[in-house]
């Protein structure tokens, strides 16, 4: 007995390629890397600016923790709201397609023919496909939302899940920047260690993501390190300018 192949896009990709990260959910890597990098860059820039003005280690830590807490909340609600808006948009598109199938079946049938025509199917083959697809309303709807408007059930993310993953990733990204101030009393030394740990983490982050992107690990690490260093440097420079201006 031949085992039936999974019907969903995620199931087919996992079945064909073997790894779960081949599924559309693999795009969550984008959110994780973005939030980690944001946590690293914003925290080290803030701490560097705070070190120049506050001087006292305890005040720097307190200010850093306040910045981290506000950043975690901002990332969570930003990711939640944006993902929820995208979810509502996708759902509205699906409802519109469902309504068109009910009210304008001829138009939707013509669109199926057009889709298969663009793929190079003959007229006879198009009619076979149309008959097969339209024989089941659920199959018809699924085909139209995937092929016509490019939406699949797996592309609709859970807002709470994305918000949680993004905020936790942001928090983890802040640790290399703030941790040295808990371990070292000398502010200058702690700041230097913070900079070194952030740059090291940026390289590791860039190299680590190639597990999924399949890019060259060293080049990816250097690219992430370079871009992160520019961001950190710009943040530090702006912080110094602000301190000089308001001093």
- Total helix count? 10
Low-pLDDT windows of residues: 1-7, 16-24
Structural class: mainly alpha
Order of helices and strands: HHHHHHHHHH
- Please compute the radius of gyration using only Cα atoms: 25 Å
End-to-end distance: 79 Å
Coarse shape:
elongated
Describe this structure in words.
- It is a single chain.
- Helix 2 runs parallel beside helix 10 (217-246) and helix 7 runs antiparallel to helix 8.
- By secondary structure, this protein is mainly alpha-helical.
- The radius of gyration is 25 Å and the shape is elongated.
- Mean pLDDT is 82; it is low at 1-7 and 16-24.
- It is built from ten helices and no strands.
- It has one domain.
Topology:
Blueprint: H1 9-17, H2 28-54, H3 57-103, H4 105-118, H5 123-134, H6 137-147, H7 159-183, H8 187-208, H9 210-213, H10 217-246
Helix pairs in contact: 2-3, 2-7, 2-8, 2-10, 3-4, 3-6, 3-7, 4-5, 7-8, 8-10
What key attributes describe this structure?
247 residues; mainly alpha; 10 helices; disordered N terminus
In short:
With 247 residues, this protein is mainly α.
